[in-house]
Write a structure and sequence with these properties.
The chain has about 220 residues and is mainly alpha-helical. It contains eleven helices and no strands. The longest helix has 20 residues.
């Protein structure tokens, strides 16, 4: 299944020319300009995410943390109206913001940005919806989607990985994630198959496990 796609197990996955400081410098340069170009910012956030993913699989978690923060900060400086034509930027930005402590995020701004998503998650962005519900401690939507999972499989192409995402979210909000350690293992084990099914030629960016990162930040940092 993985013979024709680039994965973190391939040496070429780590052949990447952009550095962390270069990405940060470029994002700060654009965001501090008189009239920021959303197109250029979107491009550099995409490059930053590639750099972040490579760092993650090198176990350079400090670099990952730094890049997630700068992506979040940059994204929050943009006018929401300017994001309409940049869905990938919206998705990446939301994921990065949701991985920040509530102490540094304006919840009203976050809700406004989240409402730009289609209310029905798709196979690729369910993680954003799960993280959002977890962020605010809601389970109603997660339980509803879980109860109607077979419907979403038929109508929206949801995959087994998505079912685990929902179970993880419900367990997280109910504060019994420790008892659901097997779910975290399932999430990790199903991830490569999930990526191979939803991406024809996945880049390094698609291999970054946002939901796992979100859970780790909340379990080990924000809940302390």
């Amino acid at each position: 299944m993985y013979d024709d796609i680039l994965t973190p197990k391939d040496r070429d996955f780590y052949d990447w020319d952009y550095g962390t400081e270069e990405c940060i410098e470029q994002l700060m340069l654009f965001i501090n300009s008189v009239k920021p170009s959303v197109s250029f910012i979107s491009e550099w956030i995409a490059l930053s995410l590639e750099t972040q993913s490579v760092a993650y699989y090198k176990n350079d978690l400090n670099t990952v943390e730094k890049l997630v923060k700068v992506i979040s900060y940059t994204f929050l400086q943009l006018d929401p109206k300017s994001l309409q034509d940049f869905p990938s930027l919206l998705h990446t930005g939301l994921r990065a913001v949701l991985c920040q402590s509530p102490k540094v995020v304006d919840s009203g701004q976050l809700v406004e940005l989240y409402r730009m998503l289609d209310p029905i998650p798709n196979v690729k962005n369910l993680d954003i919806h799960v993280m959002f519900q977890c962020y605010f401690g809601f389970t109603n939507a997660l339980s509803r989607w879980s109860d109607k999972f077979n419907y979403h499989v038929a109508e929206n192409g949801w995959l087994p990985y998505n079912a685990v995402q929902l179970d993880i979210g419900i367990g997280f909000v109910n504060d019994r994630l420790v008892a659901g350690a097997k779910l975290l293992t399932d999430l990790e084990e199903l991830f490569p198959e999930y990526i191979a099914k939803i991406e024809y030629e996945p880049l390094a960016a698609q291999w970054f496990p946002w939901l796992q990162w979100f859970i780790s930040k909340w379990e080990h940092t924000y809940r302390l």
